Amino acid sequence: MNNGNTHHQPQILVTGGLGFIGSHTVVELQNEGYEVFIIDNLSNSNLDVLKGIYNITGIKPKFFQFDLLDKEKTHQFFNQHRINGVIHFAASKAVGESVEKPLKYYENNIGSLVNVLQGMLDNNCNHFIFSSSCTVYGQADTLPITESAPLKPAESPYGNTKKISEEILLDATRSSELKAIALRYFNPIGAHPSAEIGELPLGVPNNLIPYVTQTAAGIRTQLSVFGNDYPTPDGTAIRDYIHVVDLAKAHIAALKRLLNHENKSQLEIFNVGTGMGSSVLEVIQAFEKATHMKLNYQLVGRRAGDITAAYADTSLVHKELGWKTEKSLEDALLDAWNWQLKQK
Ligand code: UD1
């Protein structure tokens, strides 16, 4: 940490910095001595997260509450602060909701990206890290999935905003000094080991791990396992679950690459996963082993839009960013559980 000397450190904007992945990335940035500015509209987060970040790092990030769709405020922000790099998390991310309200997703996710990039370019801020998703691959034809796997038509408007955003970045980097890295996340899970920050799903969780921990906590009576007739060894679907702290550290590696001018093209794309696939039943077993609890679950039909299996080929990200995961699935599940235990 570098508390006394922060003004000589690069100033990094984290949009959506109070969200699940954003808050963990803010912690890692502060641990590395970067000066962090957060813009968040609190649409899917709250101010307690700032306290959690402070409790871990002893540093209060500079916080600005506004919506990135507000072009004037976004430009004003970049005019008023010398930002050296931007990590852009702010986006709507509920797959089901995006099917109901596609225009909300296109407006929020594309509009805010365009406003941030324009604000950056007008102020000579040229380093950008983008939250993309393995959803752009759809059901890949070969596993593990490399970055050169063909992209499939998006299953949802949410997924399409990630594809379109990557295309916008390609055009923007071709026509300007902008240098960008898009990180295609696999399935981020877990929480900070301190249990000070974690995932805060609104209402009934859609994602597996929050549903697992809420079931274990008695908030939900039973976990439904969606599909046991997939062409996998145990019939349940396979994903690459990555600890959110490992994922956060991949952003630091990507940022350093840009700030040190080590990028090999104006837009680089990396998978961020563990490289290991786990089935839903394997996740349940790992949770039971890590927590010494029994989970109440039942096998039900498939969920619409789900793919059979996805896990990352991580050789490119390892070679180019020098990054790999350090934590196990059990670590992630135990941290998610300890975080769940702290919720009222
Ligand atoms: C989902 C999104 C994806 C998004 C990601 C991160 C869908 C179809 N995909 O990924 O676009 O990038 O979240 O937010 O929503 N499962 C159960 N029971 C449950 C919940 C999930 O069995 O109650 C299973 C699912 O069928 C899947 C696995 O667990 O096989 C993981 O599901 P989830 O955590 O929702 O992630 P993805 O669907 O992979």
Task: Provide a descriptive summary of the structure in words.
There is one protein chain. Helices cover 39% and strands 16% of the residues. The protein has 344 residues and is an alpha/beta fold. It has helices at 20-31, 48-57, 71-80, 95-100, 102-121, 157-174, 208-216, 244-259, 280-291, 315-321, 329-342; strands at residues 11-15, 35-39, 62-64, 85-88, 127-133, 179-185, 187-189, 223-226, 238-239, 241-243, 267-272, 278-279, 297-300. The strands form four sheets. Strands 3-2-1-4-5-6-11 form a seven-stranded parallel β-sheet, with helices on both faces. A two-stranded parallel ribbon has the order 7-10. Strands 8-13 form a two-stranded parallel ribbon. It is built from eleven helices and 13 strands. Strand 1, helix 1 (20-31) and strand 2 (35-39) form a beta-alpha-beta unit. Helix 1 packs across helix 8 (244-259). It has a domain at 11-190 and 241-274 and 311-326: Rossmann fold (3-Layer(aba) Sandwich). Bound molecules: uridine-diphosphate-N-acetylglucosamine. Uridine-diphosphate-N-acetylglucosamine binds at residues 93, 95, 133, 135, 159, 187, 206-208, 211, 223-226, 237, 239, 280, 303, 305-306.
SSE inventory with pairings:
Elements: E1 11-15, H1 20-31, E2 35-39, H2 48-57, E3 62-64, H3 71-80, E4 85-88, H4 95-100, H5 102-121, E5 127-133, H6 157-174, E6 179-185, E7 187-189, H7 208-216, E8 223-226, E9 238-239, E10 241-243, H8 244-259, E11 267-272, E12 278-279, H9 280-291, E13 297-300, H10 315-321, H11 329-342
Parallel strand pairs: 1-2, 1-4, 2-3, 4-5, 5-6, 6-11, 7-10, 8-13
Antiparallel strand pairs: 9-12
Helix pairs in contact: 1-2, 1-8, 3-5, 5-6, 7-11, 9-11
The structure holds uridine-diphosphate-N-acetylglucosamine.
Residues 93, 95, 133, 135, 159, 187, 206-208, 211, 223-226, 237, 239, 280, 303, 305-306 line the site of uridine-diphosphate-N-acetylglucosamine (UD1).
